[in-house]
Design goal:
Layout lengths: L4 E11 L8 H14 L23 E5 L12 E5 L28 E6 L7 E3 L11 E4 L17 H10 L65 H12 L8
Parallel strand pairs: 1-2, 1-3, 1-4, 4-6
Antiparallel strand pairs: 5-6
The site of arginine has 14 residues, from strand 5 and helix 2.
Length: 253
């Protein structure tokens, strides 16, 4: 198995209201969750159903707030930008200074995370590998970021970033983004499922002939509440590893 890869991470806090200017402690609470979830050291691993205990996997990725900025100067890995925008949408405005956002740091050397007010009920969104560098990274609603401060239940356990970073590492939603069992996530050990699950489902949820164990709704790449998701599979880890050996190989120093 591949050795541990460390990903320098910059968090752009783009705020209008004071509550959107989240604390360093809130940022650190989020990085701590990410580091648990990508090492399978999260406190809820025992909830993985027996049927899938053998599939749950350590992704062997570590995230570290950047200590050097693109000019080589010391930093705490947090950039704060005050904006006149009340909220942002999925159109990448938060990544552009000309639209009241904060410019990305070089995408081959940093994971860019923007935290802001997002409209339309969106918790977050991500750019898959292979896209434009200037917009590479993930965007997270401030109240779905970290486990303290402005974070609000049921999205106050840091799993929105875990999910979006999964996309950044080339993972698809486990139901394959179709609603008729025809699409998949290109990962063979995640059961095919019809569509997203929400809230806190009880096991099993059967669809697409996937009984007896049903949908793997407790996977980070479903849409359940933060407290109801707690695993990646070995197949998903292999797909993330392929990304880190391919389009994102600049991080595999
Ligand atoms: N892009 C998804 C959304 O906005 C993120 C879902 C994250 N789920 C979670 N439990 N945090 O709905
Ligand atoms: Zn998603
Ligand atoms: Ca699958």
């Amino acid at each position: 198995a591949r050795r541990l890869i460390t990903i320098p991470t910059v968090v752009h806090v783009v705020y209008k209201k004071p509550k959107e200017n989240i604390s360093k402690a809130q940022v650190q609470s989020q990085i701590a969750v990410l580091n648990q979830d990508y090492r399978f050291t999260n406190p809820d691993t025992a909830k993985v159903p027996d049927a899938w205990k053998g599939l749950a996997a350590d992704a062997k990725i570590k995230f570290k707030l950047a200590t050097k900025d693109p000019d080589g100067k010391r930093t705490d890995g947090i950039v704060r930008v005050q904006t006149d925008r009340a909220s942002f949408g999925p159109g990448d405005g938060v990544k552009k200074a000309s639209q009241g956002g904060s410019t990305a740091w070089p995408a081959d050397a940093y994971l860019n995370v923007w935290v802001c007010a997002l409209g339309g009920g969106l918790l977050g969104y991500a750019q898959f590998p292979g896209g434009p560098k200037a917009t590479d990274g993930v965007v997270i609603l401030h109240s779905a970021f970290g486990t303290e401060g402005s974070a609000i239940a049921p999205f106050n356990r840091g799993r929105t970033l875990t999910h979006e970073v999964g996309h950044w590492l080339n993972l698809r939603h486990i139901w394959g983004d179709t609603l008729d069992c025809s699409g998949g996530d290109l990962v063979s050990d995640t059961p095919n499922s019809r569509g997203p699950n929400y809230g806190k489902p009880s096991f099993p949820v059967i669809s697409c002939g996937n009984g007896p164990n049903g949908d793997m709704f407790m996977n980070y790449m479903d849409y359940v509440d933060d407290a109801a998701m707690f695993m990646f599979t070995a197949g998903q880890v292999a797909r993330m590893s392929a990304c880190l050996a391919g389009p994102r190989k600049s991080f595999a120093t």
